[in-house]
Amino acid sequence: MGIVVQKYGGSSVADAAGIKRVAQRIVNTKKAGHQVVVVVSAMGDTTDELIDLANEVSPLPPARELDMLLTAGERMSMAVLAMAIHDLGHEARSFTGSQAGVITDAEHGKAKIIDVTPGRIQTAIDEGAIAIVAGFQGVSQTTKDITTLGRGGSDTTAVALAVALRADVCEIYSDVDGIFTADPRIEPHARKVPRISYEETLEMAAQGAKILHLRCVEYARRYDMPIHVRSSFSEKEGTWVVKAEDVAQEESMEAAIITGVAHDRSQAKITVVGVPDKPGEAAAIFRAVADAQINIDMIVQNVSAAATSLTDISFTLPSGEGQTAMTALDRLKAEVGFDGLQYDDSIGKVSIVGAGMSSSPGISARFFEALSEAGVNIEMISTSEIRVSVVVAESQVQDAVNAAHAAFDLGSDEIEAVVYGGTGR
Ligand code: ASP
Ligand code: MG
Q1: Is 252 exposed, middle or buried (0-12, 13-18, 19+ CB in 10 A)?
Q2: 116 lines ligand 1 (CB under 6 A)
Q3: Is residue 156 a contact partner of residue 403, using CB atoms and an 8 Å limit?
Q4: Known NCBIfam families for this protein (predicted)?
Q5: Most buried residue, 32, 100, 218, 315, by CB count within 10 Å?
Protein backbone atom coordinates (compact mmCIF):
# COMPACT_ATOMS: atom_id res chain seq x y z
CA MET A 1 0.00 0.00 0.00
CA GLY A 2 1.20 3.44 -0.89
CA ILE A 3 1.40 6.95 0.44
CA VAL A 4 -1.77 8.81 1.38
CA VAL A 5 -1.72 12.57 1.90
CA GLN A 6 -4.60 13.86 4.04
CA LYS A 7 -5.45 17.51 4.56
CA TYR A 8 -7.65 18.62 7.45
CA GLY A 9 -9.27 22.04 7.33
CA GLY A 10 -9.77 24.45 10.21
CA SER A 11 -13.26 23.24 11.13
CA SER A 12 -12.00 19.64 11.45
CA VAL A 13 -9.40 20.66 14.03
CA ALA A 14 -11.31 23.48 15.71
CA ASP A 15 -10.75 22.34 19.31
CA ALA A 16 -9.11 19.63 21.41
CA ALA A 17 -11.96 17.19 20.75
CA GLY A 18 -11.61 17.78 17.00
CA ILE A 19 -7.86 17.25 17.16
CA LYS A 20 -8.34 13.93 18.96
CA ARG A 21 -10.99 12.79 16.50
CA VAL A 22 -8.74 13.61 13.55
CA ALA A 23 -5.76 11.92 15.26
CA GLN A 24 -7.82 8.73 15.54
CA ARG A 25 -8.70 8.88 11.85
CA ILE A 26 -5.07 9.32 10.91
CA VAL A 27 -4.02 6.38 13.08
CA ASN A 28 -6.73 4.23 11.47
CA THR A 29 -5.34 5.06 8.03
CA LYS A 30 -1.85 4.14 9.22
CA LYS A 31 -3.12 0.88 10.70
CA ALA A 32 -4.75 0.03 7.38
CA GLY A 33 -1.21 -0.19 6.03
CA HIS A 34 -0.61 3.21 4.44
CA GLN A 35 2.23 5.64 4.88
CA VAL A 36 0.48 8.78 6.02
CA VAL A 37 1.41 12.42 5.48
CA VAL A 38 -1.00 14.96 6.99
CA VAL A 39 -1.38 18.64 6.13
CA VAL A 40 -3.25 20.77 8.67
CA SER A 41 -4.87 24.19 8.62
CA ALA A 42 -5.02 26.55 11.55
CA MET A 43 -7.59 25.63 14.20
CA GLY A 44 -11.08 27.03 13.57
CA ASP A 45 -11.02 30.74 12.81
CA THR A 46 -7.46 31.26 14.06
CA THR A 47 -6.24 32.83 10.81
CA ASP A 48 -9.01 35.44 10.88
CA GLU A 49 -8.28 36.17 14.53
CA LEU A 50 -4.58 36.64 13.80
CA ILE A 51 -5.41 39.03 10.95
CA ASP A 52 -7.68 41.01 13.31
CA LEU A 53 -4.89 41.15 15.86
CA ALA A 54 -2.42 42.43 13.28
CA ASN A 55 -4.86 45.12 12.19
CA GLU A 56 -5.35 46.24 15.76
CA VAL A 57 -1.62 46.82 16.05
CA SER A 58 -1.11 48.40 12.66
CA PRO A 59 -3.50 49.47 9.90
CA LEU A 60 -1.07 48.22 7.27
CA PRO A 61 1.09 45.45 8.71
CA PRO A 62 4.25 44.69 6.67
CA ALA A 63 3.59 41.67 4.46
CA ARG A 64 6.66 39.83 5.69
CA GLU A 65 5.58 40.08 9.32
CA LEU A 66 1.97 39.25 8.55
CA ASP A 67 3.13 36.00 6.94
CA MET A 68 5.29 35.24 9.94
CA LEU A 69 2.27 35.77 12.20
CA LEU A 70 -0.25 33.80 10.14
CA THR A 71 1.97 30.76 9.74
CA ALA A 72 1.93 30.43 13.52
CA GLY A 73 -1.71 29.28 13.26
CA GLU A 74 -0.79 26.15 11.29
CA ARG A 75 2.19 25.51 13.55
CA MET A 76 -0.09 25.33 16.56
CA SER A 77 -2.32 22.74 14.97
CA MET A 78 0.54 20.60 13.64
CA ALA A 79 2.15 20.38 17.07
CA VAL A 80 -1.00 19.53 19.02
CA LEU A 81 -2.06 17.02 16.38
CA ALA A 82 1.32 15.29 16.66
CA MET A 83 0.83 15.16 20.44
CA ALA A 84 -2.62 13.63 20.09
CA ILE A 85 -1.23 10.93 17.79
CA HIS A 86 1.56 10.18 20.28
CA ASP A 87 -1.09 9.75 22.90
CA LEU A 88 -2.63 7.01 20.74
CA GLY A 89 0.70 5.18 20.78
CA HIS A 90 1.97 6.14 17.32
CA GLU A 91 4.92 8.23 16.34
CA ALA A 92 4.20 11.54 14.66
CA ARG A 93 6.64 14.29 13.68
CA SER A 94 5.51 17.79 12.80
CA PHE A 95 7.20 20.00 10.20
CA THR A 96 6.76 23.60 9.16
CA GLY A 97 6.27 24.26 5.45
CA SER A 98 9.89 25.27 5.21
CA GLN A 99 11.08 22.07 6.91
CA ALA A 100 8.84 20.04 4.62
CA GLY A 101 10.60 21.54 1.59
CA VAL A 102 7.83 23.78 0.28
CA ILE A 103 9.83 26.34 -1.72
CA THR A 104 8.01 29.41 -3.01
CA ASP A 105 8.62 32.71 -4.72
CA ALA A 106 8.89 35.83 -2.57
CA GLU A 107 5.33 37.18 -2.98
CA HIS A 108 4.15 37.52 0.60
CA GLY A 109 0.48 36.74 1.09
CA LYS A 110 0.11 34.97 -2.25
CA ALA A 111 3.33 33.05 -2.81
CA LYS A 112 3.47 30.43 -5.53
CA ILE A 113 5.08 27.05 -4.96
CA ILE A 114 8.06 26.66 -7.28
CA ASP A 115 9.55 23.45 -5.91
CA VAL A 116 8.87 20.79 -3.30
CA THR A 117 11.79 18.88 -1.80
CA PRO A 118 10.18 16.69 0.85
CA GLY A 119 13.32 14.80 1.93
CA ARG A 120 12.57 15.02 5.63
CA ILE A 121 8.97 13.91 5.11
CA GLN A 122 10.08 10.90 3.09
CA THR A 123 12.59 9.95 5.81
CA ALA A 124 9.95 10.31 8.52
CA ILE A 125 7.46 8.02 6.80
CA ASP A 126 10.18 5.55 5.78
CA GLU A 127 11.06 5.29 9.45
CA GLY A 128 7.44 4.45 10.23
CA ALA A 129 6.36 7.81 11.62
CA ILE A 130 3.35 9.84 10.58
CA ALA A 131 4.43 13.19 9.12
CA ILE A 132 2.37 16.27 10.00
CA VAL A 133 2.95 19.35 7.86
CA ALA A 134 1.79 22.92 8.48
CA GLY A 135 -0.33 23.95 5.51
CA PHE A 136 -0.50 27.24 3.60
CA GLN A 137 3.17 28.17 4.03
CA GLY A 138 6.61 27.84 2.55
CA VAL A 139 9.94 29.55 2.34
CA SER A 140 11.10 31.88 -0.38
CA GLN A 141 13.91 30.55 -2.54
CA THR A 142 15.49 33.98 -2.90
CA THR A 143 14.87 35.85 0.36
CA LYS A 144 14.67 32.76 2.63
CA ASP A 145 11.74 34.46 4.33
CA ILE A 146 8.62 32.61 5.42
CA THR A 147 5.72 33.02 2.98
CA THR A 148 2.03 32.14 2.83
CA LEU A 149 0.15 30.84 -0.20
CA GLY A 150 -3.05 32.91 0.15
CA ARG A 151 -6.25 32.16 2.04
CA GLY A 152 -7.29 28.53 1.79
CA GLY A 153 -3.77 27.62 0.67
CA SER A 154 -3.45 24.43 2.71
CA ASP A 155 -5.30 22.55 -0.04
CA THR A 156 -2.48 23.50 -2.37
CA THR A 157 0.18 22.42 0.13
CA ALA A 158 -1.48 19.01 0.30
CA VAL A 159 -1.66 18.47 -3.45
CA ALA A 160 1.89 19.72 -3.98
CA LEU A 161 3.21 17.31 -1.36
CA ALA A 162 1.14 14.46 -2.76
CA VAL A 163 2.65 15.07 -6.19
CA ALA A 164 6.23 15.38 -4.88
CA LEU A 165 5.87 12.19 -2.80
CA ARG A 166 4.08 10.32 -5.62
CA ALA A 167 1.17 9.60 -3.32
CA ASP A 168 -1.76 7.47 -4.50
CA VAL A 169 -4.33 10.03 -3.51
CA CYS A 170 -4.72 13.40 -1.84
CA GLU A 171 -7.65 13.38 0.58
CA ILE A 172 -9.07 16.80 1.48
CA TYR A 173 -11.20 16.74 4.63
CA SER A 174 -13.64 19.49 5.51
CA ASP A 175 -17.02 19.76 7.21
CA VAL A 176 -19.16 18.76 4.23
CA ASP A 177 -19.40 15.34 2.60
CA GLY A 178 -17.99 16.35 -0.76
CA ILE A 179 -18.75 18.56 -3.74
CA PHE A 180 -22.45 19.23 -4.22
CA THR A 181 -24.54 20.17 -7.24
CA ALA A 182 -25.12 23.54 -5.51
CA ASP A 183 -24.38 25.13 -2.16
CA PRO A 184 -26.58 23.13 0.28
CA ARG A 185 -27.11 26.26 2.34
CA ILE A 186 -29.26 27.80 -0.37
CA GLU A 187 -30.32 24.69 -2.30
CA PRO A 188 -31.68 22.08 0.12
CA HIS A 189 -32.02 19.45 -2.62
CA ALA A 190 -28.34 19.61 -3.55
CA ARG A 191 -26.89 16.21 -4.36
CA LYS A 192 -23.35 14.96 -3.81
CA VAL A 193 -21.41 14.56 -7.05
CA PRO A 194 -19.56 11.21 -6.96
CA ARG A 195 -16.99 12.14 -9.64
CA ILE A 196 -16.12 15.42 -11.28
CA SER A 197 -13.36 16.43 -13.68
CA TYR A 198 -10.56 18.85 -12.83
CA GLU A 199 -11.89 21.25 -15.46
CA GLU A 200 -15.42 21.32 -14.04
CA THR A 201 -14.05 21.73 -10.51
CA LEU A 202 -11.93 24.66 -11.67
CA GLU A 203 -14.95 26.34 -13.25
CA MET A 204 -17.09 25.72 -10.15
CA ALA A 205 -14.39 27.09 -7.84
CA ALA A 206 -13.68 30.08 -10.08
CA GLN A 207 -17.41 30.85 -10.18
CA GLY A 208 -17.65 31.08 -6.43
CA ALA A 209 -18.34 27.53 -5.23
CA LYS A 210 -16.34 27.30 -2.03
CA ILE A 211 -15.04 23.83 -2.59
CA LEU A 212 -11.30 23.81 -3.13
CA HIS A 213 -8.52 26.35 -3.47
CA LEU A 214 -8.31 27.14 -7.17
CA ARG A 215 -4.57 26.63 -7.39
CA CYS A 216 -4.78 23.25 -5.74
CA VAL A 217 -7.06 22.03 -8.53
CA GLU A 218 -4.76 23.51 -11.19
CA TYR A 219 -1.84 21.75 -9.58
CA ALA A 220 -3.72 18.45 -9.37
CA ARG A 221 -4.76 18.70 -12.99
CA ARG A 222 -1.23 19.45 -14.18
CA TYR A 223 0.16 16.36 -12.45
CA ASP A 224 -2.98 14.21 -12.63
CA MET A 225 -3.26 13.73 -8.86
CA PRO A 226 -6.68 12.39 -7.83
CA ILE A 227 -8.30 14.40 -5.02
CA HIS A 228 -10.87 12.83 -2.71
CA VAL A 229 -12.95 15.60 -1.09
CA ARG A 230 -14.73 14.29 2.01
CA SER A 231 -15.88 15.03 5.53
CA SER A 232 -13.78 14.35 8.60
CA PHE A 233 -17.02 14.03 10.56
CA SER A 234 -18.34 10.97 8.72
CA GLU A 235 -17.04 7.81 7.08
CA LYS A 236 -18.96 8.47 3.86
CA GLU A 237 -17.30 8.32 0.49
CA GLY A 238 -16.90 11.88 -0.78
CA THR A 239 -16.34 13.33 -4.24
CA TRP A 240 -13.46 12.24 -6.48
CA VAL A 241 -11.87 14.96 -8.58
CA VAL A 242 -10.19 13.18 -11.47
CA LYS A 243 -9.40 13.58 -15.14
CA ALA A 244 -12.29 13.89 -17.55
CA GLU A 245 -11.74 10.44 -19.12
CA ASP A 246 -12.09 8.83 -15.72
CA VAL A 247 -15.38 10.60 -15.07
CA ALA A 248 -16.77 9.54 -18.43
CA GLN A 249 -15.86 5.90 -17.83
CA GLU A 250 -17.74 5.76 -14.57
CA GLU A 251 -20.82 7.59 -15.64
CA SER A 252 -23.94 5.90 -16.86
CA MET A 253 -25.07 6.13 -20.48
CA GLU A 254 -27.19 9.12 -19.61
CA ALA A 255 -24.42 11.27 -18.31
CA ALA A 256 -25.52 14.49 -16.68
CA ILE A 257 -25.11 17.46 -18.97
CA ILE A 258 -24.87 19.90 -16.10
CA THR A 259 -22.75 18.93 -13.12
CA GLY A 260 -23.51 21.81 -10.82
CA VAL A 261 -24.68 25.34 -10.19
CA ALA A 262 -22.26 27.80 -8.60
CA HIS A 263 -22.94 31.26 -7.23
CA ASP A 264 -20.85 34.19 -6.15
CA ARG A 265 -22.03 37.25 -4.24
CA SER A 266 -18.61 38.84 -3.92
CA GLN A 267 -18.55 40.66 -7.25
CA ALA A 268 -19.43 44.21 -8.22
CA LYS A 269 -20.19 45.79 -11.58
CA ILE A 270 -18.78 48.98 -13.06
CA THR A 271 -20.34 50.56 -16.12
CA VAL A 272 -18.42 53.12 -18.12
CA VAL A 273 -21.15 55.19 -19.74
CA GLY A 274 -20.87 57.01 -23.06
CA VAL A 275 -17.55 55.77 -24.35
CA PRO A 276 -16.62 57.12 -27.83
CA ASP A 277 -16.76 54.18 -30.25
CA LYS A 278 -13.28 54.31 -31.73
CA PRO A 279 -10.13 52.18 -31.55
CA GLY A 280 -8.11 52.32 -28.35
CA GLU A 281 -10.88 53.26 -25.92
CA ALA A 282 -11.42 49.82 -24.40
CA ALA A 283 -7.66 49.35 -24.33
CA ALA A 284 -7.20 52.55 -22.29
CA ILE A 285 -9.97 51.62 -19.84
CA PHE A 286 -8.74 48.11 -19.17
CA ARG A 287 -5.09 49.17 -19.07
CA ALA A 288 -5.97 51.52 -16.21
CA VAL A 289 -7.77 48.72 -14.37
CA ALA A 290 -4.93 46.27 -14.99
CA ASP A 291 -2.31 48.74 -13.79
CA ALA A 292 -4.27 48.95 -10.54
CA GLN A 293 -3.65 45.15 -10.22
CA ILE A 294 -7.35 44.35 -10.46
CA ASN A 295 -8.58 41.07 -11.85
CA ILE A 296 -11.72 41.55 -13.87
CA ASP A 297 -14.15 38.84 -14.87
CA MET A 298 -17.00 39.51 -17.31
CA ILE A 299 -16.96 42.29 -19.88
CA VAL A 300 -19.92 43.46 -21.94
CA GLN A 301 -19.76 46.20 -24.56
CA ASN A 302 -23.00 47.38 -26.13
CA VAL A 303 -23.44 48.22 -29.77
CA SER A 304 -23.02 51.97 -30.06
CA ALA A 305 -26.11 54.02 -30.75
CA ALA A 306 -26.01 55.21 -34.35
CA ALA A 307 -27.02 58.74 -33.43
CA THR A 308 -24.29 59.34 -30.87
CA SER A 309 -21.54 56.87 -31.71
CA LEU A 310 -21.29 56.30 -27.98
CA THR A 311 -21.27 52.93 -26.27
CA ASP A 312 -21.41 51.58 -22.71
CA ILE A 313 -18.87 49.10 -21.35
CA SER A 314 -19.65 47.07 -18.21
CA PHE A 315 -17.40 44.71 -16.38
CA THR A 316 -17.39 42.79 -13.11
CA LEU A 317 -14.65 42.66 -10.49
CA PRO A 318 -14.26 41.62 -6.84
CA SER A 319 -16.22 44.19 -4.81
CA GLY A 320 -13.24 44.66 -2.49
CA GLU A 321 -11.41 46.27 -5.43
CA GLY A 322 -14.33 48.50 -6.45
CA GLN A 323 -13.03 51.69 -4.88
CA THR A 324 -9.56 51.33 -6.41
CA ALA A 325 -11.00 50.70 -9.86
CA MET A 326 -13.37 53.66 -9.66
CA THR A 327 -10.51 55.97 -8.64
CA ALA A 328 -8.27 54.71 -11.45
CA LEU A 329 -11.03 55.12 -14.03
CA ASP A 330 -12.06 58.54 -12.82
CA ARG A 331 -8.56 59.81 -13.59
CA LEU A 332 -9.09 58.65 -17.16
CA LYS A 333 -12.33 60.48 -17.73
CA ALA A 334 -11.02 63.52 -19.56
CA GLU A 335 -8.48 61.59 -21.63
CA VAL A 336 -10.92 58.91 -22.86
CA GLY A 337 -13.84 61.29 -22.89
CA PHE A 338 -16.59 59.06 -21.51
CA ASP A 339 -19.68 60.51 -19.80
CA GLY A 340 -19.57 58.84 -16.42
CA LEU A 341 -19.16 55.80 -14.21
CA GLN A 342 -21.75 53.65 -12.44
CA TYR A 343 -20.98 51.31 -9.60
CA ASP A 344 -23.22 48.48 -8.39
CA ASP A 345 -22.19 45.95 -5.79
CA SER A 346 -25.60 44.40 -5.16
CA ILE A 347 -25.09 41.88 -7.91
CA GLY A 348 -24.47 38.16 -7.90
CA LYS A 349 -23.24 35.68 -10.43
CA VAL A 350 -24.91 32.35 -11.06
CA SER A 351 -23.24 29.75 -13.28
CA ILE A 352 -24.14 26.35 -14.61
CA VAL A 353 -21.14 24.09 -15.21
CA GLY A 354 -20.89 20.80 -17.04
CA ALA A 355 -18.58 19.14 -19.53
CA GLY A 356 -21.62 17.71 -21.33
CA MET A 357 -22.86 21.08 -22.54
CA SER A 358 -20.27 21.45 -25.28
CA SER A 359 -22.00 18.66 -27.19
CA SER A 360 -25.65 19.37 -26.44
CA PRO A 361 -27.57 22.29 -27.86
CA GLY A 362 -30.20 24.29 -26.02
CA ILE A 363 -28.50 24.51 -22.64
CA SER A 364 -28.42 28.30 -22.52
CA ALA A 365 -32.03 28.47 -23.68
CA ARG A 366 -33.15 26.09 -20.94
CA PHE A 367 -31.19 28.05 -18.34
CA PHE A 368 -32.59 31.42 -19.42
CA GLU A 369 -36.15 30.05 -19.60
CA ALA A 370 -35.84 28.78 -16.06
CA LEU A 371 -34.63 32.20 -14.91
CA SER A 372 -37.46 33.95 -16.69
CA GLU A 373 -40.07 31.63 -15.14
CA ALA A 374 -38.59 32.48 -11.75
CA GLY A 375 -38.86 36.20 -12.56
CA VAL A 376 -35.10 36.70 -12.53
CA ASN A 377 -33.74 39.44 -14.78
CA ILE A 378 -30.37 38.80 -16.49
CA GLU A 379 -27.94 41.72 -16.48
CA MET A 380 -24.89 40.14 -18.12
CA ILE A 381 -24.03 36.82 -19.71
CA SER A 382 -20.74 35.07 -20.31
CA THR A 383 -19.83 31.57 -21.38
CA SER A 384 -16.96 29.15 -21.69
CA GLU A 385 -16.88 25.74 -23.35
CA ILE A 386 -18.31 24.14 -20.21
CA ARG A 387 -20.03 27.03 -18.40
CA VAL A 388 -22.80 29.60 -18.77
CA SER A 389 -22.80 32.47 -16.25
CA VAL A 390 -25.25 35.27 -15.66
CA VAL A 391 -25.11 38.35 -13.51
CA VAL A 392 -28.36 39.03 -11.64
CA ALA A 393 -29.47 41.25 -8.75
CA GLU A 394 -28.00 39.98 -5.51
CA SER A 395 -31.47 39.60 -4.03
CA GLN A 396 -32.33 37.10 -6.79
CA VAL A 397 -29.30 34.86 -6.49
CA GLN A 398 -31.02 32.17 -4.46
CA ASP A 399 -34.08 32.11 -6.77
CA ALA A 400 -31.75 31.82 -9.76
CA VAL A 401 -29.80 28.94 -8.21
CA ASN A 402 -32.98 27.07 -7.26
CA ALA A 403 -34.47 27.59 -10.73
CA ALA A 404 -31.36 26.36 -12.55
CA HIS A 405 -30.98 23.41 -10.20
CA ALA A 406 -34.55 22.31 -10.89
CA ALA A 407 -34.39 22.96 -14.64
CA PHE A 408 -31.49 20.55 -15.05
CA ASP A 409 -32.93 17.90 -12.71
CA LEU A 410 -30.02 18.13 -10.33
CA GLY A 411 -32.06 17.74 -7.16
CA SER A 412 -32.33 14.63 -5.02
CA ASP A 413 -35.50 13.56 -3.24
CA GLU A 414 -33.92 13.26 0.16
CA ILE A 415 -31.94 15.92 1.90
CA GLU A 416 -28.41 14.67 1.36
CA ALA A 417 -26.23 17.49 2.49
CA VAL A 418 -25.14 17.68 6.09
CA VAL A 419 -22.91 20.52 7.23
CA TYR A 420 -21.15 19.21 10.30
CA GLY A 421 -18.70 21.82 11.38
CA GLY A 422 -18.44 25.53 11.90
CA THR A 423 -17.52 28.30 9.57
CA GLY A 424 -13.85 27.44 9.04
CA ARG A 425 -12.59 25.09 6.39
N1 ASP B 1 -5.48 28.85 7.62
C2 ASP B 1 -5.44 29.42 6.31
C3 ASP B 1 -6.76 30.12 6.00
O4 ASP B 1 -7.66 30.09 6.80
C5 ASP B 1 -5.11 28.41 5.26
C6 ASP B 1 -6.12 27.32 5.08
O7 ASP B 1 -7.00 27.11 5.90
O8 ASP B 1 -6.03 26.61 4.08
O9 ASP B 1 -6.88 30.68 4.97
MG1 MG C 1 -8.90 28.18 7.36
Answers
A1: exposed
A2: no
A3: no
A4: asp_kin_monofn, asp_kinases, PRK06635.1-1, PRK06635.1-2, PRK06635.1-4
A5: 100
Q: Which atom of ligand 1 is nearest to the CA of 10?
A: 7
414 in a structural domain: no
Is 420 domain-assigned? no
Which of the listed residues 6, 8, 12, 47 should we mutate to test ligand 1's pocket, taking the one with most ligand atoms within 8 A of CB?
Answer: 47
Range of the domain at 273: 257-409
In a domain, 173, yes or no: yes
Q: Is the CB of 97 under 6 A from ligand 1?
A: no
Are 136 and 268 found together in one domain?
A: no
Report how many domains make up the chain.
Answer: 2
Ligand nearest to the CA of 159: 1
Residues 379-400 pLDDT 10s: 999 999 999 999 999 999 999 9
Q: Where are the alpha helices (DSSP H) in 140-280?
A: 154-164, 198-206, 214-223, 244-250
Amino acid at 23: A
Domain check: are 390 and 285 in the same one?
yes
pLDDT digits (tens, 9 = 90+) for 189-215: 999 999 999 999 999 998 888 889 899
Distance from Cα 15 to the centre of ligand 1, integer Å: 16
pLDDT in tens, 207-249: 888 889 899 999 999 999 999 999 999 999 999 999 998 887 6
From the CA of 207, how far away is ligand 1's center (Å)?
20
* 351: number of Cβ within 10 Å: 26
108 shares its domain with 173: yes
In a domain, 422, yes or no: no
Bridge pairing between strands 35-40 and 3-8: parallel
Pair 109, 201 in one domain: yes
Q: Which pairing describes strands 113-116 and 102-104: parallel, antiparallel, or unpaired?
A: antiparallel
Q: Residue 343: beta bridge partners?
A: 270
Q: Which of 135, 122, 147, 40 is nearest to 85 (CA)?
A: 40
**CA-CA distance, 114 to 48, in Å (whole number)?**
26
425 alpha carbon to ligand 2 midpoint, in Å?
Answer: 5
Question: Domain check: are 238 and 372 in the same one?
Answer: no
Spatial CA neighbour of 275 closest among 259, 265, 286? 286
Q: How far apart are CA 40 and CA 31, in angstroms?
A: 20
Q: Are 244 and 350 in a shared domain?
A: no
Atom of ligand 1 nearest to the CA of 154: 8
Written as one letter, the residue type at 124 is A
Please name which ligand lies nearest the alpha carbon of 39: 1
Distance (angstroms) between ligand 2 centre and the Cα of 38 equals: 15
